[in-house]
């Protein structure tokens, strides 16, 4: 009996594996066509300066408007895109698209807007990377300071010497550089000193239960203090409520980002929010909300 059910489990298991492989195969084929079909969209989420309550910038976050599955989040396709080599082409679309968007906002009289893009390790090390950035800046004429690059510790540590070289080149161009998901990786402090970065983004996993979890609170305090001593700005991500915000303000975090202020928004809604010149501390959750 046991043997029989074991056999069934095995059959079920291989069947499920085939299903997963098939789903993945289909998704990859669809991803391959998604760029041509213009199915990718960028959403933008504000970053808030905690000393003024104003926009300090925003982050571009990719979504896939899938014809059958609807709006898909990066967690369900970025990894497949990366593994199948498609993230390079996607990145070559994201960077100029963000630059053109900044240019359009500036043409609408929205001044000094900056936006951050997330960069994968593979694209940061790609031979076309620097040219993509330079061309996008040249073609839109936006100031390099308006473009920020977010790199994770894992990206930096994947090939430290090489990444450091590209980071220096980007810094020389005048871009802003941030370390994303800071605290989740293994970058050593001595290494951090050598990196030409402007900002540390504290990973949202440390923020969620910051008032109750002493270990997380200690990590966040430590990052804020590292930021101070290395003259790096510190931003907390994943701020969802007023008590997290109060805690971060009391501890001296300079910026914050999260659903408490605004979810990532499609361009039209972000434009409306920018035009309101919202003060996020007086009026959290600006007036426009979306998924
Ligand atoms: P990330 O760069 O750390 O982005 C922050 C993620 O946290 C975003 O998820 C954002 O929507 C979400 N978030 C923001 N505020 C809150 C909050 O208050 N609570 C919670 N629970 N979540 C919040 P999203 O858009 O699903 O992106 C996930 C990850 O996918 C990003 O993490 C980034 O690593 C990657 N990603 C997104 N867009 C791109 C892209 O254009 N290129 C690349 N290479 N990666 C991207
Ligand atoms: Mg990011
Ligand atoms: Mg992050
Ligand atoms: Mg993250």
From TrEMBL:
State the source organism's domain of life.
Bacteria
Stretches assigned to the EAL domain = 24-278
Q: Name one GO molecular function term.
A: cyclic-guanylate-specific phosphodiesterase activity
Gene Ontology terms describing biological process: cellular response to nitric oxide; regulation of DNA-templated transcription
Query: Which named protein is this?
Result: Sensor diguanylate cyclase/phosphodiesterase, PAS, PAS and PAS domain-containing
| Native source species | Citrifermentans bemidjiense (strain ATCC BAA-1014 / DSM 16622 / JCM 12645 / Bem)
